[in-house]
Predict the structure.
Amino acid sequence: MADKTIRVLLVDDHQVVRRGLRTFLEVQDDIEVVGEAADGAEGVARAEELKPDVVLMDVKMPGMDGIEALRALRSAGNGARVLIVTSFTEQRTVVPALRAGASGYVYKDVDPDALAGAIRSVHAGHVLLQSEVAGALLSQDETGGGGGRGGTLTEREREVLGLIADGRSNREIARALVLSEKTVKTHVSNILMKLDLADRTQAALWAVRHGLTS
């Protein structure tokens, strides 16, 4: 099981929150908390040092906040999936995090089993996009991010994009469309290039906005 363990980094400025998250996760056989950080800057440094699979990131922290830290991770090419853990539900905090490349978010009072499930989900390549955030995104104008370029996508690419928005991993998309995973990865790369998007999270948001979800 060692090679299947999901390595998790906790980034939150409240020690009691980090301790609670760790307690939740210590009983999971397939999840290992490999480190903690008390602010965004430390989180970026620890992520580079520890190479976690998933980072649980608070939004509001002193100094470098979670969104700035997320952007720094992406700029550095760090491939960790970032799951925002927040007590803030306003779209002005959650939406920018998703646009910066977060794979989704959960609330700090999340049920322990739901938290573990969310970690497994984002690690598998899913995007946790809840309905209220999708609605907030639909009500806003996108800046950049593809604009009206959807017409340049092939029919197959539109199918792949719709499945990304439904939270499917590359493996699940391959099974659904009877394709190889390598072919799906090629389609995903083409989609991101054509729509000028940074990652599959932004692709999912684009698909929601343009009505490609099932």
